[in-house]
Amino acid sequence: MNKALIYIGVLSLLFSCNQNLSDSSELDETEELKYGIFPQTLPEVKPEFKLSRALERLYDNYPATKPQNNELFSQFKYTDIKGFDYNNHDGTISRRDPSKVIFYNGKYYVWYTYRNTPLPPQGAEKSSDVIPSADWDLGEIWYATSTDGFNWEEQGVAIKRPEKPVVGWRAVTTADILKWKGKYYLYYQGFMEASGKRGDDCPVAVSYADSPDGPWTPYNQIVIPNGGEGAWDQYSIHDPYPLVHNGKIYLYYKSDFGEKGDWIRMQGLATADNPLGPFTKHPLNPVISSGHETSLFPFKDGIAALVYKDGNEHNTVQFAQDGVNFEIASITEMMPYAAAPFVPDAFDDTKDGRGITWGMAHFIALGGKGKFHSKLTRFDCDLSLDLHDPEMKEPRVNYTPEDYFKRSLSNKQKERIEKSTAAYTEN
Ligand code: AAL
To answer: What was the pLDDT predicted at 185?
Structure first.
């Protein structure tokens, strides 16, 4: 029996199914859409026949039908950078939560939380004026420069802890940079108690300077206040991350809420026409339901976000044309934590954001028991309209068996399995 006959047979079968379903209202909507045969060659344009939800998503949600052609999909690669000493990783020196990287006067600049304490973090109960409660407690904002982004030269302190009771007297951490009308602004978390007492509670403060090398003048006032009683951002405003969009400052931030030990992390937006405020929080906040530290960049006429670590949508790259309503543009893996990209057009108020190819990040919880500290690293990727690096667009990360076995069962899990196996074999 030849192929044509089979084809006609299948089509008439489909036609008869269609007929059978004709009484349900669902058909009305898709009346004009019939069932079809999905072709051997992947259509670039959405076929005009009934599609499953997954295929609807493929054409409606993603910038391209394959990750290889998806400008907002990338792998991430890491380089151990040079120029920072960690005192034999004994936990007394920590560098973490880097800022966006900027290029100024022939050099790249990055700011970060720097802790140098006699002891590693000891928890809120054991903390004191010199003993930190957490890895960023008693922190200052330091900075470093580099001519290649791999070899860095630490320049020293940019923002010191102010005198009590000024905002930030306990710690100034997690800074990010804005350039606005020729002046520079560093936004940072200003702690007024040791982190971990109730939670990781702090508002956001700001300092300004005429050059990235400072001197930085603290504004000594809270510019992004905590939310009202019962609000998601009532206690913590973290990871302030300013960009310029639609002629305004778009400052994204993270907040921890919910129960201690089971914090929920989401991200919000506050906008302003003046770097010193007032900032207006967006009525739709939170605008990103997952993620941890904030990492965003202008992309085409909108804003893209790296969303990692926490929440249902962790390990995604998201995009919002209005900078508010983010949709998942790709799913990826091994994303950089506290990703701090080099964003050449961060402050250009561009309608044609070109994307990113590298940045700084951190690895935390190093040193093992009693030596908790973090270190800075560099990541590379291809989330740029001006680069097409097929190596970065390959969706598979090739892990070795050792990589998998490193993720071994805990003793508690082994016990559970032994018990259930025993129970199973007894029956
Ligand atoms: C980081 C950031 C903020 C938090 C703490 C230090 O991952 O989210 O900076 O306060 O952890």
So the answer is: 98
In DSSP notation, 91-156 reads SSEEEE-PPPBEEETTEEEEEEEEEE-SS----TTT--SSS-SSTTTT-EEEEEEESSSSBEEEEE
CA distance 46 to 54: 12
Collapsed DSSP state (helix, strand, coil) of residue 305:
strand
Mean pLDDT, residues 408-417 taken together: 96
CA 330 remoteness from chain centre: 13
Q: Amino acid identity, residue 404?
A: Y
* Lowest model confidence (mean pLDDT) among 8-22, 260-274, 374-388: 8-22
Q: What is the pLDDT of residues 5-56, one digit of tens each?
A: 665 565 565 555 544 444 455 555 556 789 999 999 999 999 999 999 999 9
The CA-atom distances, in angstroms, between 405 and each of 116, 366, 399, 416 are 35, 20, 10, 19
pTM of the model: 0.91
**What is the side-by-side strand order in the sheet with 238-245?**
238-245, 248-259, 262-272, 280-281
Residue 227 has pLDDT above 70, yes or no: yes
Contact 240, 188 (CB under 8 A): yes
Ligand 1 pocket test, candidate residues 238, 254, 360, most atoms within 8 A of CB: 238
Q: What is d(CA 418, CA 427) in angstroms, rounded to the nearest whole number?
A: 14
Decide if pLDDT at 332 tops 90: yes
Q: Which atom of ligand 1 is nearest to the CA of 202?
A: 10
Q: How far is the C-alpha of 226 from the C-alpha of 273, rounded, in Å? A: 20
Q: Ligand 1: residues within 6 Å at CB? A: 97, 136, 173-174, 189, 200, 238-239, 254, 292-293, 338
Mean pLDDT score, 88-109: 98
Ligand 1 midpoint to CA 213 (Å): 24
* Closest among 155, 171, 150, 163 to 97, alpha carbons compared: 171
Q: E strands, 181-261, where? A: 183-191, 204-209, 217-224, 238-245, 248-259
Tell me which residue has its CA closest to atom 9 in ligand 1: 174
